[in-house]
Structure formats: C-alpha cells, structure tokens
Amino acid sequence: MLAQDVPPAAVHSARAPTAIGIGEREFAIAVYRPRVHPGALKFNIKNLGEDVHDLVIRRKGRRVAGLTAVVKPGSTATLRLTLRRIGSYQLVCTIADHEARGMRATLKVVR
C-alpha cells in the first residue's frame, strides 16, 4: 500500500513517539525534555561519561521499565515505552552506587 492509499484518519492516528534525549555521565543524568504528555516515548540515551551506565524508570519506588543492557562510554541506546499515568517518574542509573552519588533525574508526565 502506498502512502497516498492510506486513509487520512489512519495517517493522523499513528503518532510518532515523543523523543526524549538523555545524557548520562559521572554522576548525573540530564533529561532534555523533562515534561511530556502521556503516550509513546522514545528515550535516546547517550553515555557521555567514562563508566558504564544503565537507565531504569521508576514510579512511586517501583520499576516501570529499563534498559536490558549497560551503555558503554561513548555509546548510545534507545528505550521505547508508553507512559499513560500522569505524574512524576524517577530516572536512575542502578550500576554500583551511581544512584546514591547523584545519577537520578525526574520526568513529569503532564496533561
């Protein structure tokens, strides 16, 4: 099926995920879009540091999602998920003591 054959309603209902840039380094996480609307999200994670890092997303202390592998120094990773609940989510690195040393940030899902 060609793009011109797709009904207009189908074109508008298929929304691309909201991209969120994440920069990780010792010992901080930078969120380049800290407020998003509910829906599909695409976290573009870049390890700007010298240690390996990961990314785990929590809500009210419970894990919602996370990377399945570490991100090596200078590397990137992508995490796709859908967040429908309004509220605050914590983004943390769970490697060793990184979270305790400051590798945490907040993402707010707003209306």
Short summary:
The chain is mostly beta strands and 111 residues long.
Can you walk through the features of this model?
This protein has 111 residues and is mainly beta. It has one domain (17-109): Cupredoxins -  blue copper proteins (Immunoglobulin-like, Sandwich), CATH 2.60.40. Helix content is 5%, strand content 47%. The protein has 1 helix and 9 strands, in the order H-E-E-E-E-E-E-E-E-E. Strands 3-9-8-5-6 form a 5-stranded mixed β-sheet, with no helix packed on it. The protein starts with 7 loop residues before the first helix and ends with a strand.
List keywords for this structure.
single chain; 111 residues; mainly beta; Immunoglobulin-like; 5-stranded mixed β-sheet; 4-stranded mixed β-sheet
- Average pLDDT figure: 91
Radius of gyration: 16 Å
Instruction: Measure the end-to-end span.
Output: 35 Å
CATH fold label: Immunoglobulin-like
Percent strand: over 45%
Tally of distinct domains: 1
- Give the CA-based shape: globular
Poorly predicted segments: 1-13
Largest sheet, order of strands side by side?
A: 3-9-8-5-6
Query: What is the count of helical runs?
Result: 1
Structural class: mainly beta
Write the layout of secondary structure elements.
Blueprint lengths: L7 H6 L4 E8 L2 E4 L3 E2 L2 E9 L8 E4 L2 E5 L9 E8 L3 E6 L11 E6 L2
Parallel strand pairs: 1-4, 3-9
Antiparallel strand pairs: 1-2, 4-7, 5-6, 5-8, 8-9
